[in-house]
Amino acid sequence: MPALRPSVTHFLALAGLLLLGTACATAVAKDAAASDARPVSATDRNHRPDHQGLIVIGHRGASGYRPEHTLESYRLAIRQGADFIEPDLVATRDGVLVARHENEISGTTDVATHPEFAGRRTTKVIDGISMTGWFTEDFTLAELKTLRAKERIPAIRPANTRFDGMYTIPTLAEVIALVKRESRNGRKVGIYPETKHPTYFAREGRRLDGRPIAISLGAKLVETLVAEGFTDPKRIYVQSFEFGNLIELKKKLMPAAGIDLPLVQLYEDLNEARPYDLVYNASHGSDMQALYGGLTGQVEGGLTATTRYGALATEPVLQWMKANYASGVGPWKGNLLPRLPLAPPIDANGDGKAELAGQGTALVHPMLAWALKAGLQVHPYTLRAEETFLAQTPGGVTQSVVAEAMQLYGLGAQGFFIDQPDQGVLAREMFLELSRVEP
Fold first, then answer.
1. Are the C-beta atoms of residues 299 and 307 closer than 8 Å to each other?
2. Whole-model pTM?
3. Per the omega criterion (within 30 degrees of 0), is the bond before 344 cis?
4. Taking the CB of residue 51, how many other CB atoms lie within 10 A of it?
5. Radius of gyration from C-alpha coordinates of the chain
6. Is 90 exceeded by the pLDDT of residue 39?
7. Which of 122, 149, 211, 381 sits at 20 to 30 Å (Cα–Cα) from 323?
8. Which of 44-48, 148-152, 154-158, 400-404 shows the lowest mean pLDDT across its residues?
9. Is the bond into 382 cis (omega within 30 degrees of 0)?
């Protein structure tokens, strides 16, 4: 792992953020609770053409306020001011892309309450992890449309459970149609799709009857974007945790379709996680040079089944990525700004639950500076307003999600994924106001 280093910019941003503290965190909580009461047009003013390239990405929509990956979650994110909404994409049995965080859907739908589908419950291994439940590749789109979405983390977001059973699983085409409808009065909203488990869907996964799934999520994504007439590179980022998937999009799939869209390489935990496409391809004797080209020469010892994300977050690799396929990177915020455990946890918002359990270290991972130097966009994930996801500053002040977002902007990130887009928009307004230099 590269050595962590403190950043001068970080300390400057941190000094200003100390003023936000617990009072701001309380205001964020109240603002979140009142979100339903806002007029839907209240954030139109946030779409002036003066954001200086800073974007807000609605993570799975406005998933802090609605069950994730539903049209209502996406719609609310747009109306709260998100510039992009993020659909995670998996495939149905009949090859249609739908928006779910995982292809296993027991945690996000009411499938378990449908006796007609009881026989489809099974156990599969997805990217090396055993999962038991129901999987999108075993359902046609028509069958999935009989299900209804539910809140994924009800213990943390009990208010969202009042929407359980109200919304269907949307297709990518329906998400695009929503974005087109909501893009009005000169405002152009974009999408930030992620291909989920592309190696599993294309090469490793099996349907319930044992047949290979054999669906290229990248090819289906390109096909759908072209069919829907939604290929403006200013309104799309395509992201993936796998490397080969994005390289194939850049070198083969997009040129064949006559389009060129910005690609963002996602990073799981730099210290522990491994890109699954490397695990699969290296362990199955694939020609790594043919799949990854010059990337193989940027990592000491080459690309192997044990290569971790940290080995792919070095300055030479980031420069190679920029030169060959990537427009940006999406690192986990916990790697960029490491935290230490706070023991015992504290009750920062006064609700009687001690859920704040981390403290910042005043360190910034050098990946951030290397990526910016290479000319890559940096869009960290995921910002969330609830206390369990927040932390104290090194000085012991509780940092709100607004303060966290402002800190990332101050460090040079051009955007971030956030479950409460209205708070991200507020952070951007505050950051730009504080950054303005009077003539």
1. yes
2. 0.90
3. yes
4. 17
5. 21
6. no
7. 381
8. 44-48
9. yes
